[in-house]
Amino acid sequence: MKKNDWTRRELLQAGAGVALAVANGRPGSMFAHASDGPVRLRGKADACIFLWLGGGAAHIDTFDPKARGDGKKKPGSYYDSIDTAINGARVCEHLRLTAPLLDRCVLIRSLTHDIVSEHAAAANLLHSGRRPSGTIIYPSIGSIVSHQLGTKTDEVPAYVVMGYPNITRDPGFLGARYGYVYLTQIETGPNGLVRPPDIDDTRQQRREGLLDALRKNFLSRHSGDQVVQSQISVSEQGFRMAGPKFLNVFDLKRETSTLREAYGGEFGQRCLLARRLVQAGVRFIEVSFNLNFLNGTGWDTHNEGQLKQHLLIRDLDQALSTLLLDLERNRLLDTTLVVVATEFGRPPEFDGGGGRGHHSRAFGGLLAGGSLRSGRVIGVTDDLGKNVVERPVSIPDFHATIHAALGIDPSRNLYAGNRPVPITDRGRPIAELFAT
Q1: Burial 254-291 (b: 16+ CB within 10 A, else e)
Q2: Are 142 and 50 spatial neighbours (Cβ–Cβ below 8 Å)?
Q3: In 186-301, at which residue ranges do the beta strands (DSSP E only) sit?
Q4: What are phi and psi of 15, to 5 degrees?
Q5: Domain map of the chain by residue range?
Q6: What b-and-e string marks burial along 64-96, b requiring 16 or more CB atoms within 10 Å of the CB?
Q7: For the chain, what is the total number of helices (H) and then of strands (E)?
Q8: 400: CB partners within 8 A, 6+ apart
Q9: pTM for the full predicted model
Q10: Is the alpha carbon torsion for 393, 399, 405, 410 positive or negative?
Q11: CATH code given to domain 30-194+250-433
Q12: Under DSSP, is residue 109 helix (H, G, I), strand (E, B) or coil?
């Protein structure tokens, strides 16, 4: 027998050891490689701000710049690049405010998947970590975080989306209790929680008393129905959230005019609100940056959208840099994970209108805060940013890293009825980002 061959007894003993470790495992623990033994990968974050660049932000025009193209026939980046706080790492010249703060961040340059033609399918993959199934509706990452971490207080929701309702953000088989509160107008908060002016406290209490009696009666006739119970829980929480603690969060005038101006325009004000929501106890906040198309197309920079893409990048730069400093100033950065994500990147070649198509074989993301081991770059792409040449990161790996940073075991099972569904589709956290 060769020196490295295992006997049957040794294999059985090793299997028993793995089973025991899994049985005694805690959230955040998992295995790296079989030869490495157990490695505890768990961050200190208890909230996540997920900045969504819907449309497909060009990695080679933002956080993974290459040699400059000509905007026509010569492929390459559209802008010059600048140095950053990470030695040897450069970013687009329009990220000048964020560049010196990248020591608080991790640049992931090697995200990869194979959905290139459809925005909706790719966005669903980035939000759920899985392809759609004909038999099950998978929950979004925000709903999983809500389910795993719960609410800090009954007066605020666990999950908020700043943007229009979308199925890719839904709770899937987890049920309505782990859905999101969505905002389209940040100044007023959720319209459904605002009491009409002619309803005083006495009248509101009478209404709630009547509704409570109806709920109890209906539940008594459907006591085993989890859908009914979930909807009732959502209704009850809605009334609790209609109080001043949650609604006062939306009064951005409580912040100094200097800070509000530092955050910038619409997207920046959403990021400011995200920080206030974290302070109020919200666990997961998605901030969409695709509602106001400053360049005519948003991040989907076909044709003329490429010509004014710098307007989007500058807005992102102003908002992201201010958010990082604001979280740090409020001692929230170590416990708040900031994620910048998009559904895919763009190719180095230009289309007939001077824009770019879709590209998913290699693109990027960013993580900041959350007590991760920051100031580093994960992954390398080739000279044009078309292919990953070092350290590919799958979307399940990306999700697993986010979950682990939040103290959630990415290999833990959820249950769709009696069917076990792992939180990620065999995703593994980026181990070097965690202190072990």
Answers
A1: ebeeeeeebbbebbbbbbbbbbbbbebbbbbbbbbbbe
A2: yes
A3: 284-288
A4: -65, -40
A5: 30-194+250-433, 195-241
A6: bbbeebeeeeebbbbbebeebebeebbbbebbe
A7: 10, 17
A8: 410, 411, 424, 427, 428, 429
A9: 0.83
A10: negative
A11: 3.40.720.10
A12: strand
Distance CA 285, CA 283 (A): 7
Which one-letter amino acid corresponds to residue 289? F
Whether 152 contacts 283, CB under 8 Å: yes
pLDDT (tens place) for every residue of the chain, 436 residues total:
433 444 444 444 444 443 433 333 333 333 333 334 445 588 899 999 999 999 999 999 999 999 999 999 999 999 999 999 999 999 999 999 999 999 999 999 999 999 998 999 999 999 999 998 888 999 999 999 999 999 998 889 999 999 888 899 999 999 989 999 998 878 766 655 555 556 656 665 665 566 656 656 666 666 666 665 656 565 555 545 555 678 889 999 999 999 999 999 999 999 999 999 999 999 999 999 976 678 888 999 988 889 999 999 999 999 999 999 999 999 999 999 999 999 999 999 999 889 999 999 999 999 999 999 999 999 999 999 999 999 999 999 999 999 999 999 999 999 999 999 999 999 999 999 998 6
Q: Look at the block and give the residue holding tokens 């790996």.
A: 397
Cα 410 to chain centroid, rounded: 15
């292919």: which residue's tokens? 387
Alpha-carbon gap, residue 299 to 302, rounded angstroms:
9
Where on the phi/psi map is residue 331: left (φ > 0), alpha (ψ -120 to 50), or beta?
left
Q: What is the β-pairing status of strands 105-112 and 363-369? A: antiparallel
Read off the tokens for 100. Answer: 């010196």
Which residues lie below 8 Å from residue 416, measured CB to CB, with a gap of 6+?
A: 136, 172, 173
